[in-house]
Specification:
Length: 249
């Protein structure tokens, strides 16, 4: 792509839609003001329930999410949104000891800032996340793929359609049992993260006891038989010895 064309694309791009979730009125105002000044389209929510609702209806391009919220807290909001959307999420937290949880596999935020933070720092993080997503889309477009609908997750020749619950491999539909689909989706939404068997059980099967982990292993084996070129030497879903599994893409 020529530089001129790249610039043109940049300027004709519609403004990014940012959802800000913060219950502190003064901070919410300041955030909203700064984001609008950057040209972003801004949506706001002051509690977790509204945040989940807006995320589902408005499909923002990015979410800035406070950790401490009345009702459903930020961690739960993040987890809930992550089940169906890979929108970038930047968490705001006052508690430095929560950070591991926030960016770790438990919650799945993309980035975080510890309060108090500078507005300039936040704007830089927002810009970086939006750029990351845009590059990802451009990359897909550059490889001859049309930009997939938002309900699609694309990993090379593997496509997961979240809404229709369909999976395509090399343009051919593959048939998955309901739990296999949910397992694949959970792995894919947490790409590159090491997921323990217990965590997978809890999220995909809603079980929270130990001992059912063989169920996970069996389903992983079935999935590998369907999506790996060589199921005995898997490259998409790898085993992390002693811990669990990781989706590589
Ligand atoms: Ca708060």
């Amino acid at each position: 792509m020529t530089r001129q064309r790249a610039m043109l694309m940049e300027t004709t791009e519609p403004p990014a839609k940012v959802l800000i979730v913060e219950d502190e009125p003064a901070l919410l105002d300041a955030l909203e003001y700064s984001m609008r000044k950057q040209g972003y389209q801004v949506l706001t929510a002051v509690d977790g329930r509204r945040a989940v609702e807006l995320a589902g209806v408005e499909h923002p391009d990015l979410i800035v999410l406070d950790l401490m919220l009345p009702g459903i807290d930020g961690l739960e909001v993040c987890r809930t949104i992550r089940k169906s959307d890979n929108v970038p999420i930047i968490m705001l937290t006052a508690l430095s000891d929560e950070i591991d949880k926030v960016v770790g596999l438990e919650v799945g935020a993309d980035d975080y800032l510890t309060k108090p933070f500078g507005m300039r720092e936040l704007l830089a993080r927002v810009k970086a996340q939006l750029r990351r997503v845009r590059l990802l889309r451009a990359e897909m477009a550059g490889t001859g793929h049309q930009e997939p609908p938002r309900s699609h997750l694309v990993f090379g020749d593997l496509t997961i359609d979240k809404d229709r619950r369909e999976v395509m491999l090399a343009n051919k539909p593959i048939s998955l049992r309901p739990k296999e689909f949910e397992l694949l989706l959970f792995l894919a939404l947490n790409r590159h993260m090491v997921l323990s068997r217990d965590l997978i059980l809890e999220r995909v099967w809603d079980w929270s006891y130990n001992g059912g982990s063989r169920t996970v292993d069996v389903h992983i084996r079935w999935l590998r038989e369907k999506i790996e070129r060589d199921p005995s030497a898997p490259v998409r879903i790898t085993t992390v010895r002693g811990v669990g599994y990781r989706f590589e893409g």
